[in-house]
Amino acid sequence: MAKFAALFGFGAILLALPHALSFSQQEILVFLTINVLLVASYRLLTLTGEWSLGHVVIMGVGAYASALLSKRLGIYVPVAMLLGAVTAAMIALALSFPLFRMKGFYFLIGSFAAGEIIRLLWKRFRDPFGGPKGLKKIDPMPDFDIGIYAFDFFEPVSYYYFALAVVGVSLWVMWRIERSPVGLTFHAVHWQDRLAEASGVNVRAYRTLAFVLASGFAGLSGALLAHYIGTINPNSFDVEQMVFVLTWTIVGGTATFYGPILGCVVLTVLNEIVLREAGFEQMRPLIYGLILILSVLFMPKGLESLVRGAFSGRNARKNKAGETKAME
Amino acid sequence: MVELLAQTGLNALYAASYTALVAVGLVLIFGVMGVINFAHGELFMLGAYAIVAVYADWNLPYLVAVAVGMAFVGTVGLGMERAFFRPLRDNPLGGLVASIGFLMILQALVSMGFGVRMEHVPPVTQEVIVITERVRLPVFRLAVILAAVVLLAGLWAFLKKTRFGWALRASAQDPEAAALQGISINQTARIAMFIGAALAGVAGALTAPLISVNPHMGHSVIVTAFIVIIVGGIGSLEGAVIVAVAYAFVHTFVTTFFDGVIADIVGLLLLLIVLIVKPTGLFGSTDRA
């Protein structure tokens, strides 16, 4: 019961939050919400032990697909978003055939190369992808009214509520997946792949499944982004963005569901409050780079390890057996 | 047509020279330390900015600027080794991620120091060797090619003929056995990192007068270097040189007859195909996989 009360209170805070913020802070809140979905999907991918450098490009696939479907074919925007997510998942499925012949380093480099190829295709083919300048004037979400609240998508607050609902449902689905036998098999594939294989688990199929699901959610986050900012180009999904995702994920830690989300929220708040207010916005890549190195060196289990240390000192010894190193 | 082929061949030879320097440095670092240095393209960029600072801004002789760039970037490499590659020796993926972080730092520092706009480096020499009316080889390009050959030959002699070189190759083959023979792993890692970084720096310094120098120039360099070292078999120096030359020819010819983006796509597809068919590369062994 206390759990439900906490959840309810948390939801109320999330709903009330934008009204305490300035207009530009509300916009940042929308980006943060979208990024939460992105990092959560990245964690789903890392569950089976592979770290991809192409995840942000996959997000871009969802963004491009959704934007083109609504722009060219006039498909209703929410439907286009879902189709964008499906497209990202399908592209990931196609990529999984070459990529999952690789592991570790090779997977990392292979995913980087595959992502670069997609980005170059966007750059090269002006029709339909718009070339280096990308797509402009992407259809915004059409306004609608649900009785208690009228969505007006010129307002960031409305888009925030919409994104919050989409991201909330997505997170719940990912959470359910992880708790299901399928999710447990993902863990087995990561930590005991030989044993899992010997027990009759099709390791490659589960790796592919995690990759495709994660890519679908990443594509959805890309679609949310595209219809919010209205313009995307190949550089919106470049290595720098990938570094941000890596940093959020590693700073947060990947052993728990909330780790990467925590990393994303903490670093974004830090960025917006500390850097922007202090006039250091230009130094963001520098500081992210520094944070990335320092957390790999000194906090390989991420922020979540601090949280868990504070909350469950008595369980610390019991949990140790199941604890996971962030980068292994 | 023959003239066009000859001219493109010369251009490819020039591209091969600096690509080989970058790729060999990357392979050397991987061989000895077992980590991929994602910031290698930014070391190339630092070498080019050394030229901007020392040669273009302070008006010192070009060769002095190249030497300064080489030494400076090598020293940065030593710093990287000490700061994160050494503590993360047992965690190669962590080392790779740390080098991605370092890449961002270098880009940001250079952007703050020089601005993000393209830098203009005055040409060192304008002389051109005219072979035929339509086949020309600028003297400076010839100098870059020769310098690369000399540097690679020097590296080869160092690795095969000196005790340091033996130690380096021994710890690349089997770090534990090398350590048991009294070879200091830290020492060999330092040497490899210094040489590897310095080669990237000198490649950047040599090509700076011929290309657009900007803080993000490292990206295409690292993409090319990845293609070369993976196709060549990660950890094989000879493979890296051979593939650097072959890839430079493929890339230059596709660029000439189609366009640059198609050439990049072809290269990346080659990389993926090699990873699928023979992940150890054309010249690689299964070590350090």
Fold blueprint:
The complex is a heterodimer of chains A (328) and B (289).
Chain A (H helix, E strand, L loop, with lengths): L1 H15 L6 H24 L8 H18 L4 H23 L4 H21 L1 H4 L14 E2 L4 E2 L4 H24 L1 H11 L1 H6 L4 H27 L9 H14 L5 H21 L5 H15 L4 H9 L4 H5 L8
Antiparallel strand pairs in A: 1-2
Helix pairs in contact in A: 2-7, 2-10, 2-11, 2-12, 3-4, 3-5, 3-10, 4-10, 7-8, 7-10, 8-10, 11-12, 11-13
Chain B lengths: L1 H32 L6 H18 L4 H24 L6 H23 L13 E5 L2 E4 H23 L1 H11 L1 H6 L4 H23 L10 H15 L4 H21 L2 H18 L12
Antiparallel strand pairs in B: 1-2
Helix pairs in contact in B: 1-5, 1-6, 1-8, 1-9, 1-10, 2-3, 2-4, 2-8, 2-9, 3-8, 5-6, 6-8, 9-10, 9-11, 10-11
Low-confidence stretches of chain B: none
Helix content of chain A: over 70%
* Rough outline of chain B: globular
Q: Kindly state the percentage of residues in helix of chain B.
A: over 70%
Question: Reading side by side through the largest sheet of chain B, how are the strands ordered?
Answer: 1-2
Largest interface: A-B, 40 and 42 residues
**N/C terminus separation of chain A:** 38 Å
The rounded Rg of chain B comes to: 19 Å
The multimeric state of the shown protein is heterodimer
